[in-house]
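Data deposition worksheet. Section B asks for the primary sequence of the deposited chain exactly as it was used as input, without tags or linkers unless they were present during the calculation. Section C holds the resulting structure in token form. Section D is free text for depositor observations; keep each observation to a single sentence. Incomplete worksheets are returned to the depositor.
Section A, Depositor: J.P.
Section B:
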Amino acid sequence: MINDWIELVAADGHRFRAYRSRPPEAPLGSVIVLPEVFGLNRHLRWVAEQISAHGYVAYAPCLFDRLGGELELEYGEDAARAGHERAGALGFDTALLDLAATAAGAEANGPVGCVGFGWGGTLAWLGATRLALPAVSYYGTHTQPFLDEAPQAPLLLHFGQRDPQIPPDFHDALRSRHPQVAMHLYAAGHGFNCNERSDFHAESAAMAWRRSFAFLRQHLAEAPRFRLHPTLAADCLEVADLPLCRVLLMNDARYPWLILVPRVKDAREIIDLSRDDQHRLSDEIAQLGGVLQSICEPTKLNIAALGNRVPQLHVHVIARFDSDAAWPDPVWGRGERVPYAEGASKMLLKAVQAALQQP
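Section C:
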């Protein structure tokens, strides 16, 4: 087992660390470990190492880095209060940016899933509903407001029957709305998986781990893996990953030209996306349009999804000017592509990444 720290970059340009644990043999895939409100403490790093011992590359991202340094709290009431304040200030939408960036970096090792605990258990739920990551959620304390979101990937949920933070009617509501989601209840309280907490229940923890690893073996082996079409990879520079789409910069200095590629396997048309993903795509198109308007002040934005040559679903967002070579016609098929000089491409990439950081 090889343990180290790496740096990752989110779609909005935020840089954060992640604890990585790698198995000595070729990995079966990657598992992202999502923390409770106590942060990336000793126990969570141990969890990552246990997952690595089962053959996966484990990533534990420092999600609270955005608030002025990673949390590493011991267990107790005062620490829990401090952690909940930090988690509330961070918010799930922001944390999802870092989860998406971690998943993008982990793709090099094969299929990617996630395992989360408490606050991170709810983030794991959102990883399945919004990022299509197979997910295992342990006692996700904040999941109830998100029950209307439909999972896009397999989910496994673990709850303690004696957990005072999760009322029994939540279990009933979950079964009613998502009967296909596997859920197990244990004769235990909150945090039963953690051997450093007073609610640790060894028998329940062992059973939950067996079920979790069986789930990972099955669903990471089956998980559809997003791959960028080779033509897009050859013609473009990677900018960032948004919650749904990979953002690319067309390597053509004649036009400021961004491309959104939904990270959904085999998607060819917008109607191939789920209803939620169609809405997310619309939001991300608007976000990129705003970025180009703020940077370039164009005469017009051209937005189109063609796919006649590259069938993988992708959406062009192009800044047009009444002085450009193709105006007022479309840019396709007009002249030869002019690659950016290295310095110019770096400047534009940084400008786009910085604009993505703006609220």
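Section D:
The first strand starts at residue 2 and ends at 9.
Residues 275-296 form the longest helix (22 residues).
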